[in-house]
């Protein structure tokens, strides 16, 4: 949760933050701030470089009196000059000064105590902002990667990818005819994104077979999706808390209210958080005006309260909030605020991530920024969930296969009857989730596994040899992701949420 700069919009809460450098002060204070950050990193780097050089180097060592040098110029300037002009590998870097400065800032912002404070280069800041706001020119998919396998796990609503027929579970195989083998995640993004209106041709592996789709790139926006599920039950999924989230949520709540919605599922699973302003916008739709919705505790012991803005929807009688291990930051703030402030809220799923700190993003004039922790956030009643998370009122887990760490098989691997492997275990769990009959899920390849695998191969119209190889394994994983994403009957948490709301009548 970050970016607490005041906005002119009358709906936004005004928050005064002490001891912070704001954007309008950045130009005057940036140089002084950067030099302070740079000093410690360069001193440590200098000691490391020289000690290692003295220990293992064969070249002649030139003795230098640091005291004399420091009298002539500051240590930071001296080390900068030394690395720029005397370091052997500096000749290979045309932007050596800029890169040395970046390394210093990365080092200063890195600590074991606070993984959420970090330095962003200009490009990294842009990517970070886009990831929160979900506004970029591309095709509108989210994918995971593991050892070179790029698996689509989400296709955003009304995106170019959805319109072209991309499905969750598809595996990216080629982009514009070029294999993705050996490419990095950034390589994939660079090839998929481009100018609006241009086309990209992507070959996916779907159920073990290649499917090529031509997709027209466009601006992708949207952090929220909503719809009516059944009867008077609505569904609101929030992917993240970006600049436009409040407006998006309001539009869906209006639409569902007109459709007769009285009960609501708020899906915050895999929501990693976002901006404080966006959280305030959203929580205000569910509580009365001027209610304390969160608190912030600063290093000096002071506590600041954040109030709701108004605009509550009175038609909502009951709410179930879905959370999981990846529900973090602003989504946790929303969850515990509604849990404490309303009598008709049930939290369901598994224990959340437990990110209980607030970050501010301080931009610099060169486009880079420092995102640093400014405070710890507390619930309206003063509870901190940092490092602990939110325990659901009703714990509901998904099928075991949906918690597996997916490791792709090697081309040379294969398994059949009477063999034992973790790959066989994942196969068995996948077959069970997809509705095939297996007698065991312990990794021993028995006859029931063979029968189920052959039936799966037959249904997908792929070679029915009953052998678990790389292609078949990827087909199983792809089918599981597709089934979970597109078949609501396979989502145990969502179905239990619906049951709870039906019972509350």
TrEMBL record:
PROSITE patterns named among the record's database cross-references: PDZ
Example GO biological process: signal transduction
Domain of life (superkingdom): Bacteria
Claim: Protease is one of the keywords in the record: yes
Domain (PDZ) ranges: 139-193
GO molecular function terms noted in the UniProt entry: endopeptidase activity; serine-type peptidase activity
Keyword field contains DNA damage: no
Pfam families according to UniProt: PDZ_6 (PF17820), Peptidase_S41 (PF03572), PG_binding_1 (PF01471)
UniProt entry keywords in alphabetical sequence: Hydrolase, Membrane, Protease, Serine protease, Transmembrane, Transmembrane helix
Any one cellular-component term (Gene Ontology): outer membrane-bounded periplasmic space
Cited Gene3D superfamilies: 2-enoyl-CoA Hydratase, Chain A, domain 1 (3.90.226.10), 2.30.42.10, 3.30.750.44, PGBD-like superfamily/PGBD (1.10.101.10)
Transmembrane segments: 37-57
Family: Belongs to the peptidase S41A family.
Name used for this protein in its record: Carboxyl-terminal processing protease
């Amino acid at each position: 949760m970050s970016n607490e700069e005041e906005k002119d919009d009358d709906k936004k809460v005004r928050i005064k933050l002490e001891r912070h450098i704001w954007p309008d002060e950045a130009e005057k204070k940036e140089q002084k701030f950067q030099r302070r950050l740079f000093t410690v990193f360069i001193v440590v780097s200098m000691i490391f470089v020289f000690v290692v050089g003295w220990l293992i180097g064969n070249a002649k060592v030139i003795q230098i009196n640091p005291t004399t040098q420091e009298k002539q110029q500051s240590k930071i300037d001296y080390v900068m000059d030394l690395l720029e002009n005397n370091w052997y590998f500096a000749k290979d870097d045309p932007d050596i000064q800029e890169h040395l400065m970046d390394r210093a800032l990365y080092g200063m912002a890195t600590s074991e105590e606070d993984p959420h404070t970090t330095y962003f280069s200009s490009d990294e800041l842009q990517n970070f902002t886009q990831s929160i706001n979900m506004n970029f020119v591309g095709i509108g998919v989210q994918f995971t990667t593991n050892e070179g396998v790029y698996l689509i796990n989400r296709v955003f609503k009304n995106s170019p990818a959805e319109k072209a027929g991309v499905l969750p579970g598809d595996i990216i195989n080629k982009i514009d005819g070029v294999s993705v083998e050996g490419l990095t995640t950034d390589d994939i993004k660079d090839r998929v994104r481009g100018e609006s209106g241009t086309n990209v041709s992507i070959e996916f592996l779907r159920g073990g077979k290649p499917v090529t789709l031509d997709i027209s790139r466009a601006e992708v926006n949207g952090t929220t999706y909503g719809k009516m599920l059944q009867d008077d039950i609505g569904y609101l999924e929030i992917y993240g808390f970006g600049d436009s989230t409040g407006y998006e949520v309001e539009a869906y709540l209006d639409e569902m209210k007109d459709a007769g919605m009285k009960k609501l599922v708020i899906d915050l699973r895999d929501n990693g958080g976002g901006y404080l302003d966006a959280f305030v916008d959203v929580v205000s739709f569910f509580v009365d005006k001027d209610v304390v919705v969160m608190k912030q505790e600063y290093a000096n012991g002071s506590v600041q309260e954040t109030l709701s803005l108004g605009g509550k929807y009175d038609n909502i009688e009951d709410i179930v909030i879905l959370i999981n291990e990846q529900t973090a930051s602003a989504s946790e703030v929303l969850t515990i605020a509604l849990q404490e402030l309303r009598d008709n809220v049930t939290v369901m799923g598994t224990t959340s991530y437990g990110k209980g700190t607030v970050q501010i993003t301080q931009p610099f004039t060169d486009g880079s920024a420092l995102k640093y922790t400014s405070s710890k956030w507390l619930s309206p009643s003063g509870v901190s969930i940092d490092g602990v998370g939110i325990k659901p009122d009703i714990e509901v887990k998904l099928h075991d296969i949906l918690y597996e760490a997916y490791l792709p098989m090697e081309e040379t691997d294969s398994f059949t009857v009477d063999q034992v492997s973790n790959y066989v275990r994942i196969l068995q769990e996948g077959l069970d989730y997809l509705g095939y009959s297996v007698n065991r899920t312990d990794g021993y390849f028995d006859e029931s596994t063979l029968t189920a695998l052959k039936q799966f191969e037959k249904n997908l119209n792929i070679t029915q040899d009953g052998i678990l190889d790389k292609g078949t394994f990827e087909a199983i994983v792809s089918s599981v992701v597709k089934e979970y994403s597109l078949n609501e009957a396979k989502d145990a948490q969502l179905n239990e949420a619906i049951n709870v709301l039906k019972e509350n009548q």
